[in-house]
Write a structure and sequence with these properties.
The structure is a homodimer. Chain A is of the alpha+beta class. Chain A has one domain: 2,3-Dihydroxybiphenyl 1,2-Dioxygenase, domain 1. Chain A has a 10-stranded mixed beta sheet. The longest helix of chain A is centred in the N-terminal third of the chain and has 12 residues. Chains A and B meet through strand 1, helix 1, strand 5 and strand 7 of A and strand 1, helix 1, strand 5 and strand 7 of B.
């Protein structure tokens, strides 16, 4: 049976933390990596975040990326506003929130997931406007969210 | 600074579950994968598991592997005997327990980690006797264990 995402197109593993500077320093020491500079998920005017079906312009996180072979470990520090990131941190504490997979059409993936009874939890545009993401609510089912990514055609 | 492992040599992400058949079915549906047949970590006469510095011949888990690009997601269902897997499940519940990296010399990695103040938590030989593994106690530091793998020379 067809899945909702293609496992061969894994991009990253998202890990929610409380203090991204401290977590980045500790992880960098283990991996012998440079300590990455955190970047903001971006301005609401670009990102158009929707959480639980409503505009969530306050929902922002900071992210730091560690390359591990062909995948990235992505540390995510949410701000206080409600979001998929904040909600995970409050309910579960620090930990793996999502595994992200590239797709050619995020809307089609979301529509397929909804047909199978799964909800779209959060969506938005990447900082810089290069593509979009969508969190499918698979947490209770498999223990983490499936995040679907799509690069806009001009950026592929 | 040198890390304790090389992030480019990531092999797998380990995920502890209570019911490997049920978790495998749910994850396979998401990924469009076949439902993998769980395999035992193996007989004590081969695996020589040591947990917290003592022989742990009763410590066994069942594992199921999902290929995701160049890494594997490894579901792990521990038995009731004390082990790094059982202890994680009891203290934290289901979730990502480890990220595993290949090395040329697991003993050297463990010695280096110990010099930096980290403990070896569990070690053993793979089922089939092709190589060894060691869990370094990095859980409090970075939220998951670093697992070091080494294939024996004749199996590389």
């Amino acid at each position: 049976m067809k899945g909702i995402v293609d496992p061969e197109r894994i991009v990253s593993i998202g890990y929610v933390v409380r203090d991204i500077e401290a977590s980045s320093r500790r992880l960098a020491a283990m991996l012998g990596s440079e300590v990455p500079q955190p970047v903001s998920s971006g301005e609401a005017s670009v990102t158009h975040v929707e959480y639980m079906g409503a505009a969530a312009p306050e929902a922002v996180c900071r992210m730091a990326f560690f390359r591990m072979g062909s995948v990235k470990l992505e540390l995510i520090e949410p701000n206080e506003a409600p979001s998929v990131w904040r909600d995970f941190l409050e309910r579960r504490g620090e930990g793996v929130i999502e595994i992200a997979f590239m797709s050619d059409d995020a809307d089609a993936v979301v529509a397929d997931a909804e047909k199978r009874g799964m909800r779209l939890l959060q969506k938005g545009i990447f900082r810089g406007g290069n593509g979009r993401y969508a969190y499918i609510d698979t947490l209770d089912e498999i223990g983490f969210y499936i995040e679907v990514l799509e690069m806009f055609k001009e950026n592929r």
